[in-house]
Specification:
The complex is a heterodimer of chains A (247) and B (231). Chain A is mostly helical. In chain A, 72% of the residues lie in helices and 0% in strands. Chain A contains 7 helices and no strands. Classes of the chains: A mainly alpha (247), B mainly alpha (231).
Chain lengths: 247, 231
């Protein structure tokens, strides 16, 4: 193999140092601080729910995690379309990064939901809840996406195959949603925030809740950025190793 | 030009499907093993439940869909693995047929293969599980056909992708099964209701999902197929 792999542009000066250079990521620090602030605020400065008690506090993590995972998975679907259209390896790397982070947040959303379900519903898992089942299958699709990526060595083929899978998965989700909707009556708490005429959250709860969304979105983007940078460096290193072998 | 090409694509697809079926007909290894697997699985699943609590005929729809799914995966696995041998896929790619024709040909071949397996499996299910053979089986056969179209549409594409990876045999079920969820869920719910003697109208929503899935994924996978081939 003498060709530079797809995706790794030949590094210009002192590539070894470029790969090894440590990076201070202010965005990541802000994301982590926002998460810490969210935990402190939701545990210590937000009153417990009148009916659910302390168990309700998991909402401040569970729902933002769910939203962050959908953001990440949405980025994967969009960048996959961009890749098939422009064949830009940056789009592929971003798909890879956001899929992996999406899986992390999906796992977080599912596991926090299970703890809450154990306390409030009395069961770790129920099949008749639409959102639970839908999220579980989304988890499997994202896992399959990452396994597919790991099973292909050729960069261009890996990028094309995974983009095709991501786009088909985006078409699949509405179908799973519909069939699960028909299957299950659903007992999931429905949103009451920002809906006129419904019961209101107390102002303290609302602030914590909205802050949770901001903190999780920031943290999610920070993780995707970090994972993306890892992908860039990994590909640079692979290019260097190949250049070293052929020298 | 497109008016002239359209029948060409379908004709090429049919020729390709016939090629695959001829190979299968001459060797008969995959067909025979798929049938033995399906009937064997039917018999083994009978013992997975307590007969005194659950009626065998109540189990039949569930067993039907489990067995159909796995016999479909067996057939799909073989579909493109056949072309890897002696790099038959290269010959297909240099032949003057469109990429869409290759996909459709493979899909038609897979559909006929799977249908042939079901021709044996479904009567075997009715016999072993004591399901009365009434007119509701006509509906179930229609549902099986619709489900197989959806399964084959997605599975043929993933079969083409999986053969080029390191995990070929393992990857196909991992990729395909999540995509089979809406198909299997709808088809199983419809057939369970129909075999229990309830009206088909009760499952109209599931029927719409099944038909919608078939239409969307035949189009999407036909378009996506050219991306899975080496350029």
């Amino acid at each position: 193999m003498t060709t530079v792999p797809h995706g790794a542009s030949a590094p210009k000066r002192d590539p070894q140092a470029l790969v090894a250079k440590p990076i201070f990521d202010w965005f990541f620090v802000v994301g982590v601080l926002a998460m810490v602030a969210l935990y402190v605020r939701s545990l210590m400065f937000t009153p417990p729910d009148a009916l659910q008690g302390v168990a309700q506090k998991i909402y401040y993590i569970h729902i933002p995690a769910w939203l962050a995972s959908y953001t990440a998975v949405g980025i994967t679907a969009l960048t996959s379309i961009v890749y098939l259209w422009l064949h830009d390896e940056r789009a592929d790397r971003l798909s890879e990064a956001s899929a992996e982070i999406g899986l992390v947040f999906l796992t977080g959303g599912l596991s926090t939901g299970m703890f809450w379900g154990r306390v409030i519903w009395g069961a770790w898992w129920v099949w008749w809840d639409m959102r639970l089942t839908l999220t579980l299958f989304l988890w499997f699709v994202v896992a399959a996406y990452l396994v597919l990526r790991g099973a292909i060595e050729d960069e261009a083929m890996r990028a094309r195959y995974s983009a095709v899978l991501a786009i088909l998965a985006a078409l699949l989700i509405p179908f799973i949603h519909l069939s699960v909707y028909l299957f299950s009556a659903g007992m999931h708490p429905m949103p009451i925030v920002l809906q006129p005429g419904k019961a209101k959250l107390s102002p303290q709860m609302l602030v914590t809740f909205l802050f949770g969304f901001v903190a999780f979105e920031l943290f999610c983007v920070a993780l995707i950025r970090a994972r993306y940078r890892y992908g860039v460096k990994r590909d640079m290193l692979a290019a260097l190793e190949i250049a070293g072998d052929t020298r | 030009m497109s008016e002239l090409r359209a029948p060409g694509t379908l004709r090429a697809a049919w020729l390709l499907a016939r090629k695959d079926l001829t190979i299968e007909f001459r060797t008969r290894t995959a067909f025979f093993s798929a049938i033995v697997f399906a009937v064997l699985a039917l018999c083994i699943f009978y013992f997975a439940w307590d007969e005194s609590i659950v009626q065998p005929s109540a189990l039949a729809p569930g067993v039907l869909w489990v067995v159909l799914t796995f016999s479909a995966l067996l057939g799909l696995q073989r579909s493109f693995a056949l072309e890897e041998h002696d790099r038959g896929i290269d010959a297909l790619l240099v032949s003057p047929v469109s990429r869409e024709a290759i996909y459709l040909g493979k899909a038609i071949g897979n559909l006929l293969f799977l249908s042939a397996v079901q021709v044996v499996t479904i009567p075997a299910l009715a016999v072993f599980y004591n399901v009365p053979m009434g007119h509701e089986w006509l509906v179930v056969t229609g549902v099986v056909l619709l489900a197989m179209i959806g399964i084959v549409a997605v599975g043929t594409l993933f079969s083409a992708m999986a053969v080029n990876t390191r995990l070929a045999e393992l990857l196909l079920p991992m990729l395909s099964l999540p995509f089979f969820v809406p198909v299997l869920m709808s088809a199983a719910q419809i057939s369970a209701r129909v075999l229990a003697g309830r009206p088909l109208a009760e499952a109209a929503g599931y029927m719409k999902i099944l038909i919608g899935f078939d239409v969307v994924f035949i189009i999407a996978c036909t378009l996506a197929f050219s991306f899975t081939l080496e350029e």
